[in-house]
Amino acid sequence: MHIVVCTKHTPDSEAKMSVDGAGNVSWGESPLIINPWDEYAVEEALQLRDKHGGTVTIISMGPEAALEALKHAIAMGCNEAIRIWNDACAGSDTLATSYVLAKAIEKMGDVDLVLFGKSAIDAETWQTGSAVAHRLGYPGLMYVIKIAELDPNAKSITVERLLEEGRQVVSAPLPAVVGTTKGINEPRYTSFIGIRKAAKMQYPLWTLADVGAEADKVGAPGSGVRWPRIFMPPAREGEAEIIKAETVEEAARILVEKLLAEKVV
Amino acid sequence: MSNDIFVWVEQFKGQSAAASWEAIGAARRMADELGGHVTACIFGGPGVEPLAQQAISYGADTVLLAEDATLADFRVEPYTALLARAVREAGPAVVLIGATFRGRELGPALAVELDTGCIADCTALEFKDGQLTATRPIYAGKLLSNCIIPERRPQVFTTRTRAFPKPEPDAARSGQVTRVEPVLAEDVIHTKVTGFRETVGGVSLTDASIIVSGGRGVGGPEGFEPIRALAQTLGAAMGASRAAVDAGWIPYEHQVGQTGKTVSPDLYVAVGISGAIQHQAGMRTSKVIVAINKDPEAPIFKLAHYGIVGDLFKAVPALTAALKEKLE
């Protein structure tokens, strides 16, 4: 089995975000980390590899900072890592990003399964996995909370995926694209040996030419979406009104009156 | 160029998703501003026809209706193929899709198929300098972004559930319903749906107008009992913080926050939840937030509108009793 996991780097989820007048986003002193959702995809890939044999390749379209994500995945136990980048890739939306990732996966040729995290915690579009599946013509199975069955010989997969009303059980042939969600596994911590391996590892860089991507289909020219303005949300005015009363029963009654006045109950 | 708007109407077993009617409401307002038509696209198995008149009553001018066994369960392949063909034939300027699980899978696939942009999870849509401009939260709502699709058409948007008001239905409205056939036959569709396990006994979190959530402070699975009682009294959905889910007290499906669901109810009651930034990311846009916590310094009180500082095991049953007194 050849499993490819797509990842990206993001600011830490604790980061205090800010934006300046020119629209430059800053995350202060917070570190860049592997997108936390992607750890579920990496963990699932490693478990499938250990069960069925094969290799796991972690890939990312991104500038040098993307190495943070690749290194973490290697330290978790992925076999190979590839970074894909040209400066022309900057400003890509999910239309353009999915094009580059699909081109890279096509170049590998022998891929059985492509895994994604549910979304990235920066832009939170949730879109890249589904877009890559459509580009590759592979079945796309998003929000997967359980891989119920995977048969590399029969080239089939059955998953349970989360929808609003419950879990949909879906079967599809391989190769397929699977978007994982929290609850599918418990991602492992990186080991000392893993971190050492990640530090020594070579991280090949594939350019657009390497993956056969056309420059006018990436970056801003290849994107449908632009984001001309990023800004801080308006701060909520005032502090909470703390209900004070002699007894908790009285406080509860006062609160109910407030909620009735707000017309929310 | 047309000023027409397509809206994909999501349904499960013939029941529409609230996000779809909200999207029709948003489409109606934009179409009235531009002088365009609103077309509802309804796909499903045999028996979804009643949704067509509902879509019209909520504001659609026309309906494209496909009833076929291949469309009975939502699958992104046949749905994308059919919606893309309909868009190519009619050439709308805008496609709106509710930002549900299904919608957020369909939107990007449709955008790739049509080589256009899809702006995800919009909380506002307005015309600015002649551009249809979306507002969407990024970095867990710590920042907001204005997004546009300046050149490509159609412009595809997924609209966050409960971010747009649900229109009042008008049964007197009428419109034309056109039947369409699916594009893909069953034998060319890769995915096969072999089952569905519905979540039992619960209101869907993302659709709920009231949510009562429990966190670390509830202390264990049995600590959710008073929360469940309060939720039942309010007709509310039950949520949880990551701490409670990670402790195994309640299934992941209930988690609200950055690694759970994003919700925007009229009333959010946070019980025993300290209010880490990751939890706030999932519920900060709630209209009224109530916090019940024994720690007066808990960050949730910075976000909440009303708070009770005290023992949740006394305050929550007292609140349930006070509500029963008033509501019954």
Walk me through the structure:
The complex is a heterodimer of chains A (about 260) and B (about 325). With about 260 residues, chain A is α/β, with parallel strands linked by helices. Chain A has a single domain, classed as Rossmann fold. Chain A contains 7 helices and 15 strands. Chain A has a 9-stranded mixed sheet with strand order 11-10-9-12-8-1-6-7-13, with helices on both faces. In chain A, strand 9 and strand 10 form a beta hairpin. In chain A, helix 2 crosses helix 5. Chain A is globular, with a radius of gyration of 22 Å. The N and C termini of chain A lie far apart (about 55 Å). Chain B is of the alpha/beta class and about 325 residues long. Chain B has 2 domains: about 180 residues, HUPs (Rossmann fold), CATH 3.40.50.620; about 120 residues, Rossmann fold (3-Layer(aba) Sandwich), CATH 3.40.50.1220. Chain B has a 7-stranded parallel sheet, with helices on both faces. In chain B, helix 3 crosses helix 4 and helix 5 packs parallel to helix 9. The longest helix of chain B has 17 residues. The N and C termini of chain B lie far apart (about 55 Å). The relative contact order of chain B is 0.11. The mean pLDDT of chain B is about 95. Chains A and B meet through helix 3, helix 4, strand 9, strand 10 and strand 11 of A and helix 3, helix 4, strand 7, strand 10 and strand 13 of B.
In short:
By secondary structure, chain A is α/β, with parallel strands linked by helices. Chain A is built from seven helices and 15 strands. In chain A, helix 2 crosses helix 5.
